[in-house]
Each structure stands twice: as structure tokens, then as C-alpha cells.
Design goal:
Blueprint: H1 3-14, H2 16-28, H3 39-47, H4 64-69, H5 73-95, H6 102-112, H7 121-126, H8 133-144, H9 150-162, H10 178-190, E1 194-195, E2 200-203, E3 210-212, H11 216-223, E4 224-225, E5 230-231, E6 240-245, E7 256-258, E8 263-268, E9 271-276, E10 281-286, E11 294-298, H12 305-333
Parallel strand pairs: 1-3
Antiparallel strand pairs: 2-3, 4-5, 6-11, 7-8, 7-11, 8-9, 9-10
Keywords: Membrane, Transmembrane, Transmembrane helix
Length: about 325
Amino acid sequence: MSAKAIKILVSVLSDEKLRKKIIILVLSIAFGFFYLLCLPVIIFSNLGTIDFQATAIDHSLFTDEEFMASLDSEQAEKLNNMMRSGEAIESAMAEHGVPEQTIKAELIYVSFFDGVQNFDADAYACLFEAADDSDLINSINSHYGLEINFEDYLHTYTFVMNNTINPYMFRDTATKNSEDLAAWAYNAYESGWGYKAGFIGEKSVDDRLRYSDNAGLMIGYLNYDADSKNYGNSYGTLTYTEQGDISTMPDVPGIGLFDGTKHGIYIGNGEVIYCDEGIGYVTRQNISDGVWSSWCTYEGIRYPQIVQDTIDELSASAESSKGSSEIENEESEV
């Protein structure tokens, strides 16, 4: 994601047709996480001076029981059908090993599948093995005979994802681990987080968008409680240990990268994600395109054994080199 993500969040608010669609979408995206029903309140606060009627919204309805009770029988049946499909999608995404893409799959389904008959969640989940979102949308269009516009999809997905933290991306909420740190970084990138000093992933009261600073991208993960969906304050600073030259780094997503001034999070496939003050948002690049000089580990993060093995090997190598140097010095003195 680039500065384009921020522009999307602005443009979606000025597109009346898309705005109404997303409001309906957010009301309907209950599936396994009904807390997203509160998002219309956020959406309306985001709209600022945009002129449209919002007086029909009764905020007291934002519980699942009250909301369902307010619907007529036809509306309730339609939403129940969507929820059943959502549950099927959630299960299928987990079975296919892509649970982190559950919200994306449900959003696309709710937004664009009104006319699709005999929906099969398992066949649908298979399509999410696509290399990137562009390929995904092309595959969905081809498979279901749809004409989803990629920009419309991107508007919808970015807007909703910037308003929440993806609950499906965590593999182990009981620990703070490197795999989930990498997922956290990718989610920040994909959701279009901006840069703001002192932020760790929370939303700004000024524009309701999410921000972090460079160290805050890591601190936010350390402080975030996936169960309560709130930020704690256990970590106020980022404590790290440089472990070696970048050429010695094990291929483990969630390892930290350092260039002498800023930190990045390795996400695999030779790529790093970091929040940059200069460009103003969370960005992604190939390691070879940057000036990353060393790799590091962070206090509070659990790493797989291969990381500790590499650290031990580097330490042993350093000790061996030191011993060899001392012997050479002694021989030269003789």
C-alpha cells in the first residue's frame, strides 16, 4: 500500500453510492464478529462536512439482538442467509490455511455476490491462494461471471480494514511471537496506516485513521490484546538486540531489521515492512532496495529455535575468531 491508501479513505467518503454500500456492508459483516456493527458510528463521524442525511440511524440498535429485532422478516432472512454464508466462508478459509484472509473473503462476498446462486464456500476459499489481490479479483470475476472493479474492491477493503484490527491474522494469541509480529506488520501495510509520532496503531481523533511511528509499529503489537481488542501499556519503548550482519539473518518472518536509524519487520520472501516518517505511512520494500545493515531481535517477542541457533553460531564464530587473533598476537610477540 502507498499514499494511494490514504486517498482511497478520503475518496470513499465523497462517493455517495459507494458510501451507502459500505454502510450496509458494515451493518451486514456481522458473521463471527458482531462488534463491527459499531462501525457506522465511526463512518458517520468520519464524514465531517459531507452533506447527506444520517438522522435515521438509531445508535441504540448497535447490539446483535436489538438490530435483528428491528428488521422485518425479509430483511432478517436475508441477513441470516448472509451470516450462514459467512460462517461457511470462515470455516473454509481456515481449512484451506488462509484464515487471515477471512475478512477479505467475507467483504467481497457481501459487496459483490448478490446475484450469485448455489454459492460454495469451499470452492470460493480456493481462489484466495492467488498471488496478490489483483489476481484474486480476476479469478473471482472469471469463476463467477462477475465484473468486480478492482478500485471498488480496494475502496471497500481498505476503508473497513483501517477501522479494525484483523482478528484472524493471529496464529497464537497466548504469546507474542515473530510469526504474528510479521502478520501485524502486513496488516498495517495492507490497511494503509499512516505515520504519526507517538502512535502505535491506534486511531487519531482528528481523522479516525490509524497511525504509528517507526518503533510504534512493533510496540503496538507488543501492547495489543487480541482478546479484548484493546491496547495495553506494558511496553513504552522498543528494546532490541542487534544480532549480526544482514547477510547472516535466518529466513524467519518477524525478525527485526535495522539500518542505523529505523527499524523494519521482515515478512518473508526478501521483503520488509516499516513505518517511515519521510514518506508518511507504512510501506513495503525488498530488503535489497534499502540500506538495511543488521538484523535484530526484540524484547518480549518469542522466536523459533532456528533464530537462537543462529545467534549461538554467530557467538561461537566470534569467540573462535577472537581466540585465533589472540594466538597470532602471542606468536608475533615471540
